[in-house]
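Example for tutorial group B:
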């Protein structure tokens, strides 16, 4: 919860990053029948902020560090999936739930969405426009540069996509080859230059630090390359070793080359963050920076801040009427359910009575700072001892009515968020009862 007291908190406040995301937990799954599900889609939303998430669970190649590979990018299989997905989106767009308030962001993720055929991309873009979108809605297409040719680029632009997020990971050819990335350094840089030459859309590059073979010199060059590439935004993600990946298997067999340990990855993060900011890039979150104001990273901020996210596609996650939702990844039951007019298999969670507060805390810590005046007085008093300990450990600074994470705190932000949610559960407010800690459902919805 607090991190360790250390003369170098960036490297040693925690032993390792524990997860990619943090949440309070405690909500229980709900058994929701098809009638109750259909009724949800006939109800207007009560959410202020809304986005769509659309999942394309196919990749032409599995990256060595990835633990989320789902399906190979077989063209016929992808086209069948896209036809079913677009019909599901068309039906969803016509419901009172979808039409009751506009969507400020759409994110098409995966998998590798850019592996879909240009014709499927055009159909997807057309059906997205059936939803009520704000005038300045951010429409993001995620993917890789390899295979994203001029036809797909022009198709995406014509369909309304105005933001593209590409997984570069590293520009170094040898590091990329070890990570099972396809294009060599020169081709990656050349394609980014082509896409950013005319500011037709926002281009974002993802980099990973701590990849095998990526020493400090290579990482410094990666940062220099991304700053000179013309992209509008960049994400810096730490490699989190996960079981089941190719990297995990070769490491077990002793065939993995040099890879940065935890303290070295912390140093790499510090170098990347400080170099970007010294170069005039603005930090939007603890892992994301922008070169120009055209990059808003709206979907990511909305998702962290508790917006309603309507999910579509096998493996998609979001929330509907305040209930967390995750569809199953298996394509066969997904296709069968949609063909029969049923809800796709997945898990629906009970409401979190603390959702608004949790979203405020998570969203603020993700950006690196929290305005304490936004907290209720009792919550502020509850959390202040934790914040003071973070300050003692070099992870945050209390300045008046603001908690500001240090560079070390920003590196360890997910650990801090997880620790905060553990802290509030172990130190409940006076009068908090077991019922509020374990939500069982919401009035007005049919639960089975």
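The residue assignment follows.
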């Amino acid at each position: 919860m607090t991190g360790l007291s250390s003369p170098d908190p960036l490297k040693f406040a925690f032993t390792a990053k524990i997860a990619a995301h943090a949440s309070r937990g405690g909500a229980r799954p709900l058994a929701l029948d098809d009638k109750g599900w259909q009724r949800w889609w006939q109800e207007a939303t009560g959410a202020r902020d809304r986005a769509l998430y659309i999942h394309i669970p196919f990749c032409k190649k599995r990256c060595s560090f990835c633990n989320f590979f789902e399906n190979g990018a077989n063209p016929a299989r992808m086209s069948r999936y896209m036809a079913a997905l677009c019909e599901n989106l068309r039906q969803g767009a016509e419901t009172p739930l979808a039409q009751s308030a506009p969507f400020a962001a759409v994110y098409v993720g995966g998998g590798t969405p850019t592996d879909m055929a240009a014709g499927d991309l055009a159909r997807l873009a057309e059906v997205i426009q059936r939803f009520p979108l704000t005038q300045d809605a951010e429409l993001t297409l995620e993917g890789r540069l390899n295979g994203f040719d001029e036809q797909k680029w022009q198709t995406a632009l014509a369909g309304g996509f105005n933001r593209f997020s590409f997984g570069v990971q590293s520009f170094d050819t040898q590091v990329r080859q070890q990570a099972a990335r396809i294009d060599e350094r020169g081709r990656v840089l050349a394609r980014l230059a082509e896409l950013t030459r005319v500011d037709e859309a926002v281009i974002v590059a993802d980099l990973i630090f701590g990849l095998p073979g990526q020493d400090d010199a290579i990482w410094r060059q990666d940062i220099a390359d991304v700053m000179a590439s013309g992209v509008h935004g960049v994400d810096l993600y730490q490699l989190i070793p996960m079981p089941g990946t190719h990297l995990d298997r070769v490491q077990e067999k002793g065939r993995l080359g040099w890879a940065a340990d935890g303290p070295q990855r912390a140093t790499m993060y510090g170098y990347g963050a400080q170099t970007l900011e010294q170069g005039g890039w603005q930090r939007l979150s603890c892992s994301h920076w922008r070169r120009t104001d055209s990059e808003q990273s709206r979907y990511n901020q909305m998702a962290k801040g508790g917006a309603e996210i309507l999910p579509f596609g096998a493996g998609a996650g979001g929330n509907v009427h305040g209930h967390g939702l995750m569809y199953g990844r298996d394509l066969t039951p997904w296709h069968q359910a949609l063909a029969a007019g049923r809800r796709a298999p997945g898990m629906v969670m009970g409401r979190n009575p603390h959702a608004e507060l949790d979203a405020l805390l998570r969203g603020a810590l993700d950006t690196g700072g929290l305005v304490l005046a936004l907290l209720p007085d009792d919550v502020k008093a509850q959390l202040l001892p934790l914040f003071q300990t973070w300050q003692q450990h070099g992870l945050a600074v209390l300045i008046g009515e603001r908690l500001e994470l240090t560079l070390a705190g920003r590196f360890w932000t997910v650990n801090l968020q997880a620790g905060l949610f553990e802290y509030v559960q172990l130190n409940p407010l006076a009068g908090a009862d077991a019922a509020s800690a374990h939500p069982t459902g919401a009035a007005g919805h049919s639960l089975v």
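The domain at 29-304 is CATH 3.80.30.20 (pyruvate-formate lyase- activating enzyme). Compare this with the pattern of hydrophobic and polar residues in the output above.
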